[in-house]
């Protein structure tokens, strides 16, 4: 029987290419590669040595530096990059050079390095972006991707000029992890974020979305089969995410940080977001979107895109005045 989710992939890939981005593989280091969707105008195909077409010839490309301000969309834990950001890419590509990476063990990205920390994800993403000729960028991070974005902003202030965060926190401390899971009724992060059954997939969707979304059981089964691969490694990513509360400090970010939130987020609620805004200080701003949950960018994409573009426009207008 045809997997409905897998069958939709060629259509989604075609829509992304129509929006102006194409997949590109970047070798970060020996044993580590990242798949990053890049602006099609930055791709230069090397001339073929003969008329014979080979796999190597077809994939032998290089990239040029982007000509527009760079926006990097960093996905969450339940899906790869273009699935997460499918409603944002087309809204941004006219004015911005949009890059959509697949973090390690998502999409086509993989490593033989045993490090499963957000720090390693941030290091690899930064190296990948620099290899693509990116000197400055704005990160837009959702959920797990938001934690990677925060870490990357902390480590590479010369590369990251601003950060937009949705449904995420600075770090998953053991106290926040325990309180969040208890409040949602799950025994572990893996039970919540790595479902193994249709019922588990429905439970994840229920807490992630504000609206009661219904999908047939077959679609849930197909989603589980396609999107939740690399289970062992992803379980290790979840283990590597939790840090001790007593060892956590608030970095002094030089960048502007915009918290763009679904006001009905059940996973990282509004109070947590507003407290984080206060902790981050004067460089942080907060904007809530009504009638939206954790999946705010998917539930209310038009309003989310409007808010995101307004922030980006203000950011670059301020940069132009300097």
What would you say this structure looks like, in words?
The protein is of the alpha/beta class. It has 14 helices and 13 strands. The protein has helices at residues 4-19, 55-59, 81-84, 89-92, 118-131, 144-155, 174-184, 189-193, 198-208, 217-227, 231-241, 270-280, 296-299, 301-321, and strands at residues 21-29, 32-39, 43-45, 61-63, 70-74, 97-101, 110-111, 137-142, 160-166, 172-173, 242-243, 256-262, 284-289. The strands form three sheets. Strands 1, 2, 5, 6, 7, 8, 9, 12 and 13 form a nine-stranded mixed β-sheet that branches. Strands 3-4 form a two-stranded antiparallel sheet. Helix 5 (118-131) packs across helix 6 (144-155). The model is unreliable at 50-59 (pLDDT under 50).
Would you tell me the structural class of the helices and strands?
alpha/beta
- Unreliable stretches covering 5 or more consecutive residues: 50-59
Please estimate the helix content: 40-55%
> For the CA atoms, what is the radius of gyration?
19 Å
The tally of strands reads 13
Task: Report strand %.
Answer: 15-25%
- Largest sheet descriptor: 9 strands, mixed
Topology:
Elements: H1 4-19, E1 21-29, E2 32-39, E3 43-45, H2 55-59, E4 61-63, E5 70-74, H3 81-84, H4 89-92, E6 97-101, E7 110-111, H5 118-131, E8 137-142, H6 144-155, E9 160-166, E10 172-173, H7 174-184, H8 189-193, H9 198-208, H10 217-227, H11 231-241, E11 242-243, E12 256-262, H12 270-280, E13 284-289, H13 296-299, H14 301-321
Parallel strand pairs: 5-6, 5-8, 8-9, 9-12, 10-11, 12-13
Antiparallel strand pairs: 1-2, 2-6, 2-7, 3-4
């Amino acid at each position: 029987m045809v997997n409905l989710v897998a069958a939709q992939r060629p259509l989604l890939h075609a829509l992304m290419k129509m929006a102006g981005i194409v997949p590109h593989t970047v070798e970060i280091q020996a044993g580590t590669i990242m798949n990053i969707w890049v602006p099609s105008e930055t791709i230069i195909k090397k001339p073929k040595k003969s008329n014979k077409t080979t796999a190597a010839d077809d994939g032998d490309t290089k990239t040029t530096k982007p000509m527009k301000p760079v926006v990097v969309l960093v996905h969450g834990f339940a899906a790869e990059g273009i699935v997460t950001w499918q409603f944002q890419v087309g809204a941004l590509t006219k004015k911005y050079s949009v890059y959509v990476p697949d973090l390690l063990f998502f999409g086509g990205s993989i490593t033989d390095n045993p490090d499963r920390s957000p720090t390693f994800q941030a290091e690899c993403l930064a190296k990948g972006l620099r290899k693509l000729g990116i000197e400055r960028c704005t990160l837009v991070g959702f959920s797990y991707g938001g934690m990677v974005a925060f870490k990357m902003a902390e480590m590479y202030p010369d590369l990251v000029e601003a950060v937009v965060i949705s449904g995420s926190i600075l770090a998953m401390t053991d106290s926040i992890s325990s309180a969040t899971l208890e409040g949602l009724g799950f025994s572990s992060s893996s039970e919540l974020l790595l479902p193994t059954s249709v019922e588990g997939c429905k439970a994840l969707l229920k807490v992630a979305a504000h609206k009661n979304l219904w999908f047939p059981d077959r679609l849930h089964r197909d989603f589980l089969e396609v999107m939740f691969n690399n289970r062992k490694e992803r379980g290790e990513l979840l283990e590597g995410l939790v840090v001790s509360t007593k060892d956590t400090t608030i970095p002094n970010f030089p960048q502007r940080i915009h918290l763009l939130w679904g006001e009905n987020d059940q996973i990282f609620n509004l109070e947590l977001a507003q407290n984080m805004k206060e902790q981050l200080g004067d460089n942080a701003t907060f904007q809530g979107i009504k009638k939206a949950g954790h999946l705010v960018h998917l539930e209310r994409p038009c309003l989310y895109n409007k808010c995101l573009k307004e922030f980006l426009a203000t950011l670059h207008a301020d940069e132009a005045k300097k």
